[in-house]
Specification:
This is Transport permease protein. It is found in: Cell inner membrane; Membrane. It holds the Pfam family ABC2_membrane. It is a multi-pass membrane protein. This protein has helices at 3-23, 25-28, 30-51, 59-89, 93-98, 103-129, 140-164, 173-184, 197-203, 207-220, 227-251, and strands spanning 53-54, 57-58. By secondary structure, it is mainly α. Strands 1-2 form a two-stranded antiparallel ribbon. The longest helix is centred in the first third of the chain and has 31 residues, at 59-89.
C-alpha cells in the first residue's frame, strides 16, 4: 500500500469506529454523563460541603479534574476492548489481517476510535461540571496534552485486553478488578499528602495517579507529584504498550487458532 492508500484505510477504520459508538449514543455517551452528575451531586455538593477545602481549593473544584479523567480512562478503554473483541468474535478482524493494511494501521484505527469516545465523553462531563462549579484552567496546553495521552494509553490497553480475551466476560475482568480500584485510589477524591508516608509510597506505584495529578495541575496549578516525571511516565507507558500490542497483533495472538 502506498501512503495515500494507507491514510485512506486508517481514516476509514477511524470513521467506522466513531460511527459505531455514536450510533448507540444512549448506551455510550449518555450514561457516563449521568453517572458523573451523580458524583458531582453526592461527593461535590453533599459530602464536599462537610469536607471543606482540599489543597487550598473548594472540594468540588478539587475533584472535577479527577472525575473528568476517570470518565476519559473508562470510556477509552472499554470502547476499544468491546469493539475489537466484537470484530474478533465475528471473525471480521481476519479480513483486515489478510488485507494489505499494515498492522500499525489496524491498531492505530481502533486506538484513535477509542480516543474519540474517551475525549468526547470527557468533553460532555466537563460541560456537565459547569452546572456545579466554575472551571478555570491554569495551563490549557498541558491539560489538553495529558488528556489526549491518557486516552491513547488506555485505548491501547483496551486493545491488548481484547486480544487476550477468549469470551465477552473476559473484557470486563480488567476494568472491574484492576482499572476501577486503581482509578479510585489514584487521587481522584483526595490528595495523597493526606496519607501516611508508607501509603504515599504505595500510591506512587499507581500509574493513574500521575495522569490525574498532571490533569489537575493543568486546571488548578497544584500536583502531588512532579509534572515532568509524570509526563515522562505516561509517554513511557504508551510506547511500551503500543509496542507490545503491535507485536501481539503481528503474531496473531488471540486471533489465529
Amino acid at each position: 500500500m502506498n501512503a495515500t492508500q494507507t491514510l485512506i484505510a486508517l481514516w476509514t477504520l477511524v470513521v467506522k469506529e466513531i460511527k459505531r459508538f455514536t450510533r448507540i449514543w444512549p448506551q455510550t455517551l449518555l450514561p457516563p454523563s449521568i453517572t458523573m452528575a451523580m458524583y458531582f451531586i453526592i461527593f461535590g455538593n453533599l459530602i464536599g460541603s462537610r469536607i471543606g477545602a482540599m489543597d487550598g481549593f473548594n472540594y468540588m473544584d478539587f475533584i472535577v479534574p479527577g472525575l473528568i479523567m476517570m470518565a476519559v480512562i473508562t470510556n477509552s478503554y472499554s470502547n476499544v476492548a468491546s469493539s475489537f473483541f466484537s470484530n474478533k468474535f465475528q471473525r471480521s478482524i481476519e479480513e483486515m489481517m489478510v488485507s494489505p493494511m499494515p498492522n500499525w494501521v489496524i491498531l492505530s484505527g481502533f486506538v484513535l476510535g477509542g480516543m474519540a469516545r474517551g475525549l468526547g465523553v470527557g468533553l460532555i462531563v466537563t460541560v456537565v461540571s459547569l452546572f456545579f462549579t466554575r472551571l478555570s484552567m491554569e495551563h490549557p496546553l498541558l491539560t489538553v496534552l495529558v488528556v489526549v495521552l491518557t486516552s491513547a494509553l488506555f485505548s491501547v490497553g483496551g486493545f491488548i485486553n481484547a486480544l487476550l480475551a477468549n469470551k465477552f466476560d473476559d473484557i470486563s475482568i480488567v476494568p472491574t478488578f484492576i482499572l476501577t480500584p486503581l482509578t479510585y485510589l489514584g487521587g481522584v477524591f483526595y490528595s495523597i499528602s493526606m496519607l501516611p508516608d508508607f501509603w504515599q509510597g504505595v500510591s506512587m506505584l499507581n500509574p493513574i495517579l500521575y495522569m490525574v495529578n498532571v490533569f489537575r495541575y493543568g486546571f488548578l496549578g497544584v500536583s502531588d507529584i512532579p509534572v515532568g516525571w509524570a509526563l515522562m511516565a505516561i509517554l513511557g507507558f504508551i510506547v511500551v504498550l503500543f509496542t507490545v500490542a503491535l507485536q501481539m497483533l503481528a503474531r496473531g495472538k488471540g486471533i489465529r487458532s
